[in-house]
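hey team, just a heads up i'm posting the complex here instead of the shared drive bc the drive is being weird again. everything in one block, sequence lines first with there labels, then the predicted structure for the whole assembly after. its two chains so it's a bit long, scroll down
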Amino acid sequence: MRHLSPCRLIRIAAVAVLLAGFFFVSTVSAEQAASPTTSPIMVPNPATDLWRAVRQREAPAAGVTQVQGVQSGVLIAKSGEDFRNYRKDDFIGIAGWVLAGAAGLILLFYFVRGEIPIPDGRSGKVIRRFPDFDRVLHWFTAILFIFLAVTGLTLLFGRYFMLPVIGAEAFSVIASASKEGHNLFGPLFIFSVLGMFFRWARRNLPHAYDFKWLAKGGGIIGNAHVSAGFFNAGEKIWFWSVMLLGVAIIASGLVLLFPVYGQGREIMQLALVIHGIVAILFIAGSFGHIYIGTLGTQGSIESMKTGFVDENWAKGHHDLWYEQAKAEQKANAAAGDQHSASSSRDDALSPATERT
Amino acid sequence: MANMKFYCDAERCIECNACVTACKNENEVPWGVNRRRVVTIKDGEPGERSLSVACMHCTDAPCAAVCPVDCFYTTDDGLVLHDKDICIGCGYCFYACPFGAPQFPESGAFASRGKMDKCTFCAGGPEETGSANEYRKYGANRLAEGKLPLCAEMCATKALLAGDADVVSDIYRKRVMYRGSSVLDWGVNYDKASIRKSQGMKGKASSRS
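-- predicted structure starts here --
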């Protein structure tokens, strides 16, 4: 063995330390290379920003394309998946339960409360309530509404209830007819809403006694007497609901009817969402309206069927209007001596204006 | 059974639009419908990429989910096709599709629209294979002849790949290997490991594979 002088030992030790140091550093840097989160990125790949943008975690990446079309430059529209999830998870199931629940509650109420009879029974005398134009307008609206509701509900629920029963080809014929019918007659609803607005808006303006009527629940529970004008507060609520829901459903319906004006998918999705929610609320509300007007209150359906109502019905449910109408009749009889006391067919005066 | 998919390699696409033209011609696509389109993102800037997109034949297709008449069906090959005889042309599939694949034809008066049309992976439709009806409604049925969609066949750079998902992903995997970039490394290896960079080459696609 050669002589191990201290100098030599120091030199060997220095080399050993240096080698150890190199190994140490290289292992550390290897670890750093294996975990990229800790090492600085010198040259970012511009494509990674691009793909992040395409994935639409922030704003969607704008693209250009040679193909001419609305939104052709959009690579992925994330809203499509939101729309699909909304429709399947949040809308179709819930809409069904809302409608079933509304119908069920009303039936339950009927079995508990029963029909509300005319206060003090029928008097046998009638008084004019609605002129012919109003009745035609109402029934036009009612038939149109039921048609639109049935066709619309076919498109919404038919796949789940009708298609398994009658098969795809037959259901396609029904669904296609529903869609075409719904599209064709839907715009007629504009005339309904406008007609009813111009005819009845003034009579549906709220007054102080309407709030008292509401506070007593309209007298539907128990036999409390409530005062009302030509339309009571419940009818006024329904009127303004029809107006608001009607405007919303018409606006969204027109957007859906003409998809070719460059709207893009997001607007169409929004229109479908609005149209659907409003339609379900409308139909549920109509259940209540139809109930009250037929089964729920004795003597109500006549007002729309014939235009006349029993005087005790008018006195009991709309006393303020009744008194005013009677007063006008007396004034007309005194002035012209041409009208009979109760059943005048041509006095458009008493139902058309309400001064209370 | 095969699981047929499209894959467009953004590093290779040169937006020549050969795929668009091929599809339109081969299938005699109705006026107003663009079954396939090439979208260029970040046009003119660093990181510009082009992608050819048509129907992606999704496994859980949103179009099939929202259709009110349930006219979509998935074939054994994993393709999402629809039956134009049952389609009522309502357009919900178009609103739900992230890629805008099923489209309204714009012929017809007063927005009458007609049946939705979409990419069929050149696999025709539910009509009898090879019949005139099938061609008129859905376009060519190349798959029945053992061929792949014409868009992928026509692609000038083989950017658009179409076929069984395993085969397509294998091809792309090899390309990534040669290019040297990996999504896991984000930007770290892009500069160092790429063959092109080490040889001082510039530009997008590798000349290999």
